[in-house]
Specification:
With 409 residues, the protein is α+β, with helices and mostly antiparallel strands. It has ten helices and 16 strands. It has a five-stranded antiparallel β-sheet with strand order 7-6-5-4-8, sandwiched between helices. A four-stranded antiparallel β-sheet has the order 2-1-3-16. Helix 2 packs across helix 9 and helix 7 crosses helix 8.
Length: 409
């Protein structure tokens, strides 16, 4: 994260309830042999559908019913179970691009649905609007009924991928310059979110931090304060400025200059230099800490935020909380893609060696200053940083009551 332009104000928030600073220890990717993975039970009429999924190190979801038998066996301990509608909320988190997708959780099959005409189509990414062949009238009627009774899940999203579209809580996008996630594909372009309208006290917050992106990408001879394209196109999440960014960001302002303890206990490297050298670890630390400290918190500021944002900013509301968790999942996915597609100076490499972290101490700040939060790092053997990120997200969903672990057989 990093200090970006936003409203200036004193913090106005209640301290979060006491909880474990790091959360549960991240799980290993479990790949032991065992009995076959159980199939999802047949659902009774009107029973909300559920889905079993896993999350890979690139923050991509995989549905159990679509995995091959060998893959299911390899990852039989990595699946978790969720209400399908809540999973759709999680998966849509942070996205400003439009979608006309309807999804069958039982089979994993997607359809393109034209709500205006009421027609379903085979889902085909190579076709305009993802509309492949239209389904026949009998199947179309059955799909409409399934959508009505909830066994088919509406995963559609309004297309807000425009610079004139107001930013909403949790929106993910590049900072001040449009970004093609796949450089040669115009359809992969995400519009920048800095300078766009917002009727709430927001900051477009870099993850990893903007200054660490600059340090990774400044060329010899460039001014030490030069803003690089990596910074301008850096992945940001729209969060409340005072009640989230200033209060809980580990890279807000002078926090970037702190010297944290490395795995050997040495305090020789500033946080921003650590982040420039270990961007995947930095993403894990910043996103995990912010999600920890905002759990069950009401981030709505009645003096600065428009009334329609009252529910979306209340982290005690399940859909709002899932949306923010989903935003950081999506930010991680975009970071992984641009690192792979554009180069090592962008995003982060999920295959990097893993670190975990512990906030070691917190010292209160003075007037108009914010709490100092000390961090120590630990090496995590036999895992990649991407695995640590995905495992901690899976554990969060389970521990916050949104998901259930699938029993090991």
């Amino acid at each position: 994260m990093g200090r970006l332009k936003g409203f200036s104000s004193k913090p106005s928030f209640s301290p979060p309830p006491t909880r474990s600073p790091q959360g549960p220890a991240p799980k290993l990717q479990r790949t032991s042999d065992g009995a076959k993975v159980p199939q999802q039970p047949t659902l009774a009429t009107n029973t909300p559908p559920r889905v079993q999924v896993r999350l890979d190190e690139r923050q991509k979801f995989h549905q159990q019913t679509l995995d091959s038998p060998n893959t299911r066996q390899q990852h039989k301990n990595d699946y978790f179970d969720m209400d399908a509608a809540q999973f759709a909320t999680l998966k849509n988190g942070g996205k400003r691009t439009g979608s006309n997708k309807a999804w069958d959780p039982a089979t994993g099959k997607n359809y393109a649905y034209d709500k205006q005409s009421g027609q379903f189509f085979e889902f085909d990414k190579t076709k305009p609007g993802n509309k492949g062949a239209p389904v026949n009238p009998q199947q179309n009627a059955a799909l409409k009924q399934s959508l009505s009774d909830g066994t088919l899940v509406d995963r559609s999203r309004q297309d807000r991928n425009r610079t004139d579209e107001p930013v909403r809580p949790g929106d993910v996008g590049p900072y001040e310059k449009n970004l093609r996630v796949r450089p040669n594909d115009p359809s992969s372009e995400l519009k920048h979110v800095s300078g766009t309208k917002a009727d709430w006290n927001t900051n477009r917050d870099h993850v990893p931090s903007g200054e660490s992106l600059n340090k990774r990408n400044r060329l010899p001879g460039q001014a030490p304060d030069a803003k690089t394209d990596a910074y301008k196109e850096g992945v940001t999440v729209a969060i409340p400025d005072d009640r989230a960014h200033k209060a809980h960001s580990l890279t807000y302002g002078s926090r970037q200059t702190y010297k944290d303890a490395d795995p050997a206990g040495n305090r020789t490297t500033t946080r921003v230099d650590h982040d420039a050298n270990h961007p995947a670890s930095a993403f894990h630390r910043d996103s995990h800490h912010l999600l920890n400290t905002t759990q069950n918190q009401n981030l709505f500021n009645p003096g600065k935020d428009a009334t329609p944002h009252q529910t979306p900013l209340d982290m005690a509301q399940p859909d709002s909380r899932l949306g923010l968790i989903g935003s950081y999942r999506y930010a991680g996915s975009v970071n992984s893609k641009i690192n792979q597609n554009i180069g090592p100076g962008r995003g982060y490499d999920p295959s990097a060696p893993a670190e975990s972290f512990t906030p070691a101490s917190t010292a209160p700040g003075g007037k108009r200053k914010y709490d100092k939060i000390d961090v120590t790092y630990q090496n995590v053997p036999n895992q990649t940083q991407g695995q640590v990120i995905s495992n901690s997200l899976r554990d969060r969903l389970i521990n916050e009551g949104f998901a259930q672990d699938v029993p090991t057989l």
